[in-house]
Amino acid sequence: MIAPPPTPQGCEVYEADSGCLVLRLHYSCDPEKTPAWAAAEKRAEARKGNGEKNWRREMELDCTVYDGDPVYEDYTDSIHCPKWLQENDWEPQKGSRYILGVDCGQTLNPAAVLLEVGPAPFHQIAAVLEVVSDGFEPMSKFCPRVLDILARRFPWWDDIKWVGDNTVTQRSGTNGRSAWDEARQFGQDIKPMTNLLHARIGAVTWALCDWIDADSPRFFICGKNCPTLLAGFRGGYRLKEPVGKNASEKDAREPDKFTKFSHPHDALQYAMMEAQRMIKGTGNSVRKLSSYAPRRHND
Fold first, then answer.
1. Residues 70, 280: Cα–Cα separation, whole Å
2. CA-CA distance, 35 to 24, in Å (whole number)?
3. How far apart are CA 21 and CA 124, in angstroms?
4. In terms of pLDDT, which residue wins out, 291 or 111?
5. Where are the beta strands (DSSP E) in 18-124?
């Protein structure tokens, strides 16, 4: 008996429920289509305003499906989290400032996201670390855990500015202490930020869409150290579906708060508003200095 030939690289073969044999092709089955080719194609599509969802489905066999529309349609892997940032830690830039966004006010599922705001004149931004909770973790336990992670990963953690939602000062009904109080006992002040949705979403959208120059995006995500945040950008962080015949347009525009992606993305939004304030007025057109060049989005 002659065994069937092995499935070529980049191919997927399976039998559908109807009995038909289905062949799906990854771009890598064509030896002329290298990862560099794919990166260039995705960047070209992104510059046309096309997201990566169709590309990942048609060329990379990624059929992940989420309910609802993504909050950030301007996110693109090849621009904001290229392969080198999915596989490697972020390398800190000398002269940067750091902001820790914390979603902790009225939740037992707190989350924190650390942003690096690069040196002048470019002020390139990167999400370099996330800390998430498995659930039911009070701030009295979450805060020291975050500090321990920062001390190990970023020894200069005492220079990090903490920001959070404006409910951080609201006192708990269980012990009468607020998230701000809990952070204070560990030596940290959390600056309250606005909870206005358009301001929060707008700050992140600005970072996704802004470019320092033709080859350097404003915002990077270190996918290796921010996996939940990255999955949220790829489609997990969604807008709520309208419920019932009388559901308002406002309901449909709000992000779904009952997913694992909501809290880290809220934390990112608070941090990004503060980062935007830090670099407000820099604009897109900047003069390159010989001593520093922004990171580019090549793989």
1. 27
2. 18
3. 49
4. 111
5. 21-25, 97-103, 111-117
